[in-house]
Amino acid sequence: MYHCLKYFIIVTGLVWSFGASGADVKINGFASIVGGKTISREPLLGGEESVVYADFANNGLYDSQLTFYPDSNMALQFIVDMEEGLTATAQINAVGSTQFDAEIAWAFISWKANSEFTFQAGRQRIPLYYFSDSLEVAYSYHWIRGPIEIYNASMANYTGVKLIYETIVSDVPVRFQWYGGESSGFNFVSNAAQAYKDLMGITLDADHKGLAFRATYGQAKYGLEGATSTLNGITLDQGLDNGVDISLGNVALRLDRLAYFVMAEYSNYSFGDPQWTDIGGFGVKRGDGWYVSSGIRIGAYTPHITYGALRFLLDSSAAIFLGLASEDQTLKTRAITVGLRWDFHPSAAFKFEYYDSKDKSDDLVLLGGETFTVTAVSMGIDVVF
Questions:
Q1: Hey, is 70 helix, strand or coil?
Q2: Which helix H or strand E contains 126, and what residues bound it?
């Protein structure tokens, strides 16, 4: 709460100073209040039970106790128009997974040089996924949360620059983005500090008559510092400035015909060297996930269904050496989400979801239990203002 008040005073002071100078100031916001719990779980090694990781970046999860933290958030966004194409944007976010400890999620300057080119500098979202820019604005999509089989990045924002190029190709609006910078945070899966260095990438968006396409590719140096295995207590001080190569790719396709929609998204990342994780002490070589989702709009109601999958290829060289495995092990999940969105107000929607996940991992990975076999329900309200 202290940080929330501090950031609000700072940003409000800046906005007031811009307003006093004659600049146009726009303030808007969004919020989600969501409650949920698991209704079916699997016993795990050490007496624990399987959970649903709703917010990977902040270790937000659902267990057997009803909680309103993992998917709840609130944010205020300030946009200052200084004319001649120059704007400043700041966004204060308070997410439930951090006990609503607010942070400045966005803080960047944007200059629209002409109808085609826009240059941005500062802190904003890493554009890895189809819903990257609006992921925290749950009102903008049909789910309570983006499918965790795709939207599971442990770092969401970066500080750096972006160049946007917009044009028309055969009557199709096309948008290119080139970005570069760095990011840092904490990885709760590996229990370690983490960082992207030399982050750079490109995205392509095209949208024509309800058919939208998006493709992204990025690369960086990914470093962990202080990752500790719960199995053997070994600490791997790789160092944040001595990371391994990582490549990140994503492709999405969405068809929206007003009465119904269908979309699919696939994401992949791979490491130049196996990267440490606390999944049974294995290292990750590659990860990929996908989902297919569809829904129909019946007045104010939107029933929908999503099927998704997640897979990690794990470095199992030690297990192979010891004769415990003949090849690299794989962590695999399959999940289905069934939900309903009710737009009971022009600026608000009520949502309900049933989520069921099955752990389909290889036998060696399952020695500690079926970590991803779990069923949960959640419901809540999303608003924009």
A1: coil
A2: none
**DSSP-derived secondary structure for 141-199:** SSSSS--TTT---S--EEEEEEEEEEEEETTEEEEEEEEEEEEEEEETTTTEEEEEEEE
Of 97, 119, 281, whose CA–CA distance to 185 is shortest?
A: 97
Contact criterion met (CB below 8 Å) for 160 and 178: no
Task: Determine the straight-line distance between the first and last CA of the chain, rounded to whole angstroms.
Answer: 21
CATH of 112-384, one of 3.10.180.10, 2.40.160.10, 1.10.1040.10, 2.30.39.10: 2.40.160.10
Residue 232 is predicted with a pLDDT of 44
Which of 91, 107, 150, 101 has the alpha carbon at shortest distance from 309?
Answer: 150
In one-letter notation, the amino acid at residue 235 is T
Tokens encoding 277:
């994780």
SS3 18: helix
Query: What confidence tens digit (pLDDT) does each residue in 47-70 have?
Result: 899 999 999 888 899 999 999 999
- Rounded to whole angstroms, how far apart are CA atoms 255 and 259? 11
Q: Which of the 8 DSSP states describes residue 5? A: H
Q: Which three-class secondary structure state does DSSP give residue 96? A: helix
CB atoms within 10 A of CB 350: 15
The pair of three-digit structure tokens given for residue 185, joined into one six-digit string? 């945070």
Q: Are 333 and 356 in contact (CB under 8 A)?
A: no
Residue 305, Cα to own-chain centre: how many angstroms? Answer: 20
Which is higher by pLDDT, 266 or 230? 266
Q: How far apart are CA 233 and CA 4, in angstroms?
A: 37
d(CA 53, CA 138): 17
pLDDT at 234: 45
pLDDT class of 235 with cuts at 50, 70, 90:
very low
Sign of the dihedral defined by the CA atoms of residues 378, 379, 381, 382, in that order = positive
In DSSP terms, 235 is beta-bridged to 228
322 pLDDT exceeds 50?
yes
Smallest Cα–Cα separation from 121: which of 38, 191, 181? 181
Compute the residue count for the chain: 385
- Is residue 16 scored above 50 in pLDDT? yes
Domain borders along the chain are 112-384
Say which residue the tokens 């800046």 belong to: 14
pLDDT per position as a tens digit, 152-166? 888 889 999 999 999
